[in-house]
């Protein structure tokens, strides 16, 4: 019996169920991954006991000598990984990281120009119910209807018309490489600042496989748990000259004590991403996504922009007579986890949109390769072609269970 099983069998049991779910199914949510056993170990330590408000060498609590070392290592490694001058590794999440930048450079009422949520942006890029939409005057750009690529003519003309103080690049559901340099040129032409939220593709940037925004952006924000494969958290990269103001916004501006166990997990994740094997992993994510995209397209599914350059694809399932909600539920019954998602120019509503978003970072961590993606593609098509047939879903689920258990999940025996 484990200690947790003994102390709290209900929570232990729910965790065991979740371990099983993560093992027997196919995890295709584009923002999820399986973090390493080393990251899990760091995140599950006594560091959770420690208060460390402040920054290394400038804390408001005693006994911080060891956590100072941990946070300093995390900062140095983040800078090394991305070629950045300065890293703040305390934000608890990507939303907190974005909030930290906004509160550092903007006043309430200032204008930001960011990607529309309905075209692939994030809640913190000015969605009306989010703090970003409530505090700031938001102008949204999107993708062209013709090819579903970012419309830089629109970005430039909106920038000229509205003179935003900050342009936000980066997306949560955009399957193509983002040309950060073009955003930087537009920002420079109107004297705006540029923030890039690279949360989804920060692992691909770390591996040198996606354009690195650090070279051209004033601030770069990210989560650490998506393609980067660290613990669930966030960080901000910037130039040295912005460090003091940014630090003051994170603490005491919007957070108290950092989650030092998670900062340690981030340090481990940056260390792992600096190893040559990480580049192979990131390349495999992209290769797997391309093969899965081809497989779905050959089955009659339309993909937004026609394919993918990165870890994710947006599949329009209305082309085969389904909605995103129905597709998500049918796949879930078969042990395939995805999320329903708006596709650009969607005529349907967010709770039952036209698409599903599919990503390959997690399955790639389990060691799956191109041939495995062809099988995954076939299973997805089989389920979607008989979405209301529970027997089909049950049969696929059994095949997937047998298949998936052959691919280990880090940290699960
Ligand atoms: N909620 C995340 C996603 O699924 O893309 C973004 O933070």
What fraction, in percent, of the residue positions are helical?
40-55%
Radius of gyration: 21 Å
Query: Based on helices, strands and strand pairing, what is the structural class?
Result: alpha/beta
Number of helices: 16
Q: Identify the CATH homologous superfamily of the largest domain.
A: Type I PLP-dependent aspartate aminotransferase-like (Major domain)
CATH topology of the largest domain: Aspartate Aminotransferase, domain 2
- The CATH architecture of the largest domain can be named as 3-Layer(aba) Sandwich
Domain tally: 2
Sketch the major β-sheet.
Answer: 7 strands, mixed
How many DSSP-defined strands? 15
Overall mean pLDDT: 98
Multimeric status of the protein: single chain
Kindly report the spatial arrangement of strands forming the biggest sheet.
4-10-9-8-7-5-6
Fold and architecture overview:
This protein has 2 domains: 234 residues, Type I PLP-dependent aspartate aminotransferase-like (Major domain) (Aspartate Aminotransferase, domain 2), CATH 3.40.640; 129 residues, Aspartate Aminotransferase, domain 1 (Alpha-Beta Complex). Helix 5 packs across helix 10 and helix 12 packs parallel to helix 15. It is globular. Helix 6 links the parallel strand 5 and strand 6. It contains 16 helices and 15 strands. The protein is an alpha/beta fold and 413 residues long. The protein has a 7-stranded mixed β-sheet, with helices on both faces. The mean pLDDT is 98. D-serine binds next to loops.
